[in-house]
């Protein structure tokens, strides 16, 4: 996420939630690679890095997706998603219980 916040595409392994984190809707904000028996194939990693460094269009496409990918981790967006989850699980609390939650202050 920090790399995305700096405006740069990411090279990462395609494990757990990483593909979702990099997804920009029209492709990843960088390059994903599979692990080989839970190990990083150094030659494959080198080829990906070299490709991004020597193929301006490939890098440009990945970089153009960074904004869409990082927007999922905007604090306001994340607070809203957490509130949606809690509301779905617990029900909608009275408005007085919401006071100051987003602003970080007490009612």
- Order of strands in the sheet with most strands: 1-2
Question: Tally of extended strands?
Answer: 2
Query: Major sheet, described briefly?
Result: 2 strands, parallel
- Low-pLDDT runs of 5+ residues are none
Overall morphology: elongated
Distance between the termini: 32 Å
Q: Please report the number of helical segments.
A: 7
- In terms of DSSP E residues, the strand content is 5-15%
Q: Could you give the order of the helices and strands?
A: HEHEHHHHH
Helix content: 40-55%
Instruction: Return the structural class.
Output: mainly alpha
Structure description:
- The protein is 53% helix and 7% strand.
- The chain has helices at 2-5, 18-22, 42-54, 56-64, 66-71, 75-90, 95-98, and strands at residues 10-13, 30-33.
- Strands 1-2 form a two-stranded parallel ribbon.
- The longest helix has 16 residues, at 75-90.
State the gist of this model.
The protein has helices at residues 2-5, 18-22, 42-54, 56-64, 66-71, 75-90, 95-98, and strands at 10-13, 30-33. The protein is mainly alpha-helical and 107 residues long. Helix 2 (18-22) links the parallel strand 1 (10-13) and strand 2.
């Amino acid at each position: 996420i920090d790399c995305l916040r700096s405006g740069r595409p990411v090279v990462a392994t395609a494990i757990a939630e990483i593909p979702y984190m990099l997804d920009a809707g029209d492709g990843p904000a960088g390059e994903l690679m599979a692990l080989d028996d839970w190990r990083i194939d150094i030659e494959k990693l080198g080829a990906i890095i070299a490709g991004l460094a020597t193929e301006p269009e490939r890098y440009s496409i990945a970089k153009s997706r960074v904004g869409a990918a990082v927007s999922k981790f905007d604090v306001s967006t994340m607070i809203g998603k957490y509130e949606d989850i809690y509301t779905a699980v617990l029900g909608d609390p009275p408005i007085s219980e919401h006071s100051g939650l987003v602003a970080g202050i007490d009612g």
